[in-house]
Design a protein that fits this description.
alpha/beta; Rossmann fold; eight-stranded mixed beta sheet; 8 strands; 45% helix; globular
């Protein structure tokens, strides 16, 4: 089963570059597998999208830029046709900038329509709450609603959450996001995302065939494990890497401490499903009843799911191959996404009611129905996560 990786704009390519560095390491198992790029698959647009979702989604009107979507889809089809068995695509992009937002959403929709049987997993990076563009709340509203409609799962990495959790895991305490940004670089954050992707999706021994062959099931088994309900598909990922023989229990405790446990209204966050991936020394000792119960309680697993936990193991730590080490990566369908969704809805509604910046969207092809549908979709996502523990 083959997976195609599609990297969109600056964020997608920066994260993708760190991902390929990890898996192309000559010390890595299966490093001999052909993962080289075809030059024809590197597609470049000559102009930006002005941080406008509508501009990126509906495309520029000039002939060269108008063909960027078609060139990308043509290249995508050729890749699919060269594979014995196409299974899905992993789409790397941001929720900032017209290309990451708009073109990323259009590609997701086009791939779903042209290849309906394949899975789509979106790896999405959300901007800082403090703001990177006056249009970011409209852009986030529209893009998130599109991925809710067309993707099977969304690994959502929020810049502010990443900063806080990375500092907490490093044992540092800083109150303000601006101070955190000064200590953790964009490169550090891109590397962290790539490390989480490797932790979740690099082949694991527990999913290999009896003959020891990996057939690339990891991304789609991940979706099966953590997206039991199609109306809730936004995923929260945490990771810890330790050299030596740190206990799995202590690593889990450190990760659980970084989780958002309560919403802004003091409601307790819950998880509909959780997947843990243990790599490195002693990975075969990872599963034990007390440990799994601690993870179930720490992530607030809902009572209606009879099997909320899944785990994979592998003796190789793909993130740190130079010394004995342990890597624990946990992906949860966690209701903390509510906080981000509600902020986006609140800010976008305020702007929409004030008719702020809307002319930039009408100018590039958006209609009132696009916004109304986006509000409705994200409202439904919020309601589903709010009621996750009541099913």
């Amino acid at each position: 089963m083959s997976t195609i990786w599609l990297q969109v704009r600056q964020c997608g390519n920066q994260v993708g570059q760190e991902w390929w560095k990890l898996i192309a390491n000559e010390r890595a198992p299966n490093s001999a597998v052909d993962r080289s790029f075809r030059e024809s698959n590197v597609l470049i647009g000559l102009r930006g999208r002005g941080n406008n979702w509508a501009f990126g989604y509906h495309r520029l009107r000039t002939e060269d830029e108008d063909s960027l979507l078609h060139r990308t889809m043509d290249s995508f089809r050729k890749e699919v046709e060269q594979r014995d068995s196409y299974s899905a695509v992993i789409l790397l992009h941001s929720l900032s900038g017209g290309t990451g937002y708009g073109l990323g959403a259009r590609l997701c929709e086009s791939i779903r329509k042209d290849f309906p049987m394949g899975y789509i997993l979106s790896v999405t990076v959300a901007p800082h709450q403090a703001g990177e563009s006056p249009l970011q709340h409209f852009n986030s509203l529209l893009c998130l609603s599109w991925f809710q409609r067309y993707a099977d799962g969304v690994l959502l990495f929020h810049n502010d959450d990443m900063l806080r959790s990375m500092h907490a895991l490093f044992g540092k305490k800083t109150e303000h996001i601006s101070a955190l940004q000064a200590q953790i670089s964009l490169y550090d954050m891109n590397t962290h995302i790539a490390s989480c992707l490797a932790g979740l999706m690099y082949p694991v021994s527990s999913l290999r065939t009896r003959s020891g062959v990996s057939i690339g099931l990891e991304p789609w088994e991940l979706l099966r494990s953590v997206c039991p309900v199609p109306t809730t598909k936004f995923l929260y990922t945490s990771q810890m890497n330790k050299r030596g023989n740190a206990s799995w229990d202590s690593m889990l405790s450190s990760i659980v401490r970084t989780l958002p446990h309560h919403s802004s209204t003091r409601n307790i966050h819950q998880s509909t499903a959780v997947l843990a991936v243990a790599r490195g020394n002693g990975a075969d000792t990872f599963n034990c009843s007390p440990f799994m119960m601690k993870m179930k309680q720490g992530y607030g697993c809902v009572s209606w799911n009879p099997h909320p936990l899944d785990y994979w193991t592998d003796p190789w730590n793909i993130v740190d191959l130079t010394s004995p080490s342990r890597l624990l990566t946990i992906c949860a369908n966690h209701s903390s996404v509510l906080d981000y969704m509600q902020r986006v809805l609140e800010k976008a509604r305020t702007m929409y009611d004030a008719h702020a910046y809307l002319h930039w969207y009408w100018k590039h092809g958006c209609e009132e129905g696009d916004f109304l549908q986006a509000f409705e979709i994200l409202d439904s996502v919020v309601k589903e996560y709010s009621a996750a523990g009541d099913h």
